[in-house]
Amino acid sequence: MTGADPKPAFAPDSPTDHRRSWARVAVGMAPSLVALALWWGGTAAGVLPDIRGLFPVFVVWVFASAMVPLAYIRKIYCLLIVLGLLVPITAAVLAMNFRTARVEGPSMLPVLVEGDVLLVDERADLVPLGIYVLEVEGENNPLVKRLVGLPGQTMDARYGRLFADDTEVHPRRGDAPDTWNTDRPVPSIFTSRLPRRLEDGQYFFLGDNPPVSRDSRQFGPVGREAIRGRVVWSLRGSHGFGPVE
Description:
Blueprint: H1 18-45, H2 55-67, H3 75-97, E1 98-102, E2 117-121, E3 131-134, E4 143-149, E5 154-158, E6 161-164, E7 167-170, E8 196-197, E9 204-206, H4 216-219, E10 227-236
Helix pairs in contact: 1-2, 1-3, 2-3
């Protein structure tokens, strides 16, 4: 046979084909990027809880997804490996950034019931009226309470209601006033001197069921180091498996 050799056809399995390399990277990264977009969209729409501690899962997953295709294995294997990486990556991130807590006693009724098992995000931001796990020196730990006062706010209680800078923080949602503080809250070292302004680094916590709750009314405001994380999800108990507010 004479003449020049025919131009070789495009071989998708050739490790030297750059188009194949980019296709592999695209296939490998697609699941993690789609999951990241769904997570961001879900939290923005309020459908999913804003769990800050899960963000490293997607960062590591996206990076790993881009690296796996460079091994030059078939695209279907790239996809399976990338999907399989989600389990160990998620497990590692959960172990490093989350903890579980069990509700003890009736201090958070009616929102939380004794025996509820909660997922706690240790990297979460401090959100007013969020539920947090505390470890306060001298108290039975851990404590599950609601954040009602931030540094710089003035706490006061009158006529069955608790206020932070004149904003009612308990009862929430316009419920009827409690009987626990017709004039002032349950007497304690801290609340006997209300109104009182919280200093820098001081946070005021209250149980949702004040008559039986031991909280900042008794042991005073707590520092940031005592706040171990925000309750973001119910794993088992009165809420089943779902969000907690």
